């Protein structure tokens, strides 16, 4: 399980770094710049995108809640993740770590602006966090979905779904914005923790999210149908562009389903990145799902060597997996943070 957790977060980071250079570009422009195959590998310096940055801070926030509860303190994962996301906001406002900074705030490379979404920045800046029952706005964007994977390492699939929804709703109040985050977290749990195969996991997540959001459920169901017809850029475009949560999740899931084998990881994230839309988010979702399914053995070694802060991603992922599997990890590093 720990290896699959590491595969999940590193796989997501690789997909994010692959898709980032072509985000916002129409497919014709991608082909004009990179050739008929499109972008095929991350840049020589594979930088973490804002989705991966926020995933790391979400993981740190969840681990603060987990270790606090494990040591007889308050168990408040939503408050802890909200506070962690505000710590990430500090990295977008300051030039570097303050003296005595701890945890992720001590990592100088995270103080880099990677074009985060306006909805996320505004919600965190205002400090008015929403919930599914009390939304902060009406955004259906995929910014809440982007950071949901750590919720997948909650003890059970229903809790993973609930936390994914609540983590997403902190900044994205539209039903599709937070329900897609819950579905993604549940998928990660079913695949990485329970060892389920992707088709069965997606069927189960589709059924669960249908109770909250028909659009997300229908998008996942269409992704499953199209995957049975094979891998095609046309199928990706049919699912949308990925700017909203249901579309991004459907594209990411489709590419993982259409190219599900461990040795197809690179081709799957390429398929998820080379389209006219939110290429970094969709490729990150595909990479996270396949990494959760197959573990680190599926990840291209030469891509990992160029990934920014790969050791930090691995550390957070290891501890998420260990917290869920009962293995020992350094809990002290997470006890000093506040919750919102």
How many discrete structural domains? 1
- Listing every helix as H and every strand as E from the N terminus to the C terminus, the arrangement reads HHHHHHHHHHHHHHH
For the largest beta-sheet, the strand count, sense and barrel status come to:
none
Based on CA inertia axes, which overall geometry fits? Answer: globular
Which class in CATH terms?
A: Mainly Alpha
Q: What is the CA-atom radius of gyration, in angstroms?
A: 18 Å
Helix content: 55-70%
What would the average pLDDT be, to the nearest integer?
Answer: 96
Intertermini distance:
30 Å
The stretches of 5 or more residues where confidence is low (pLDDT under 50) are: none
How many strand elements?
0
* Structural class by secondary-structure content: mainly alpha
The CATH architecture: Orthogonal Bundle
* Share of residues in strands: under 5%
* CATH T-level topology: ADP-ribosylglycohydrolase fold
Overview of this protein structure:
This protein has a single domain, classed as ADP-ribosylation/Crystallin J1 (ADP-ribosylglycohydrolase fold, Orthogonal Bundle), CATH 1.10.4080. The protein is built from 15 helices and no strands. Helix 7 runs antiparallel to helix 8, helix 9 runs parallel beside helix 11 and helix 11 packs across helix 13. The longest helix has 21 residues. It is globular. The model has no long low-confidence stretch (mean pLDDT 96). Keywords: Hydrolase, Magnesium, Metal-binding. It holds the Pfam family ADP_ribosyl_GH. Its cofactor is Mg(2+). This is ADP-ribosylglycohydrolase family protein.
């Amino acid at each position: 399980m720990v290896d699959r957790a590491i595969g999940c977060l590193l796989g997501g980071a690789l997909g994010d770094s692959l898709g980032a250079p072509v985000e916002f570009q129409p497919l014709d422009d991608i082909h004009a710049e990179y050739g008929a195959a499109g972008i095929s590998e991350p840049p020589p310096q594979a930088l973490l995108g804002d989705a991966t940055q926020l995933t790391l801070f979400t993981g740190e926030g969840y681990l603060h809640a987990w270790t606090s509860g494990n040591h007889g303190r308050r168990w408040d994962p939503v408050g802890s993740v909200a506070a962690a996301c505000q710590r990430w906001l500090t990295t977008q406002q300051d030039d570097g770590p303050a003296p005595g900074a701890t945890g992720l705030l001590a990592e100088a490379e995270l103080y880099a602006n990677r074009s985060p979404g306006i909805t996320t920045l505004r919600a965190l800046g205002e400090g008015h966090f929403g919930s599914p029952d009390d939304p902060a706005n009406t955004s259906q964007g995929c910014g809440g979905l982007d950071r949901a994977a750590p919720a997948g390492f909650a003890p059970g699939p229903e809790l993973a779904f609930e936390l994914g929804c609540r983590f997403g709703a902190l900044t994205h109040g539209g039903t599709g914005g937070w329900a897609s985050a819950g579905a993604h977290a549940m998928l990660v749990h079913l695949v990485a923790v329970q060892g389920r195969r992707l088709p069965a996991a997606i069927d189960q997540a589709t059924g669960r999210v249908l109770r909250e959001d028909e659009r997300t459920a229908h998008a996942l169901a269409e992704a499953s149908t199209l995957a049975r017809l094979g891998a095609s850029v046309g199928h990706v475009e049919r699912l949308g562009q990925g700017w909203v949560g249901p579309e991004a999740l459907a594209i990411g899931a489709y590419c993982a389903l259409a190219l599900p084998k461990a040795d197809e990881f690179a081709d799957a994230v390429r398929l998820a990145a080379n389209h006219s839309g939110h290429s970094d988010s969709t490729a990150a979702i595909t990479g996270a799902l396949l990494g959760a399914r197959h573990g680190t053995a599926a990840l291209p070694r030469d891509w990992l060597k160029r990934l920014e802060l790969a050791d930090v991603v691995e550390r957070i992922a290891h501890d998420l997996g260990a917290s869920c599997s009962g293995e020992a990890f350094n809990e002290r590093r997470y006890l000093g943070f506040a919750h919102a």
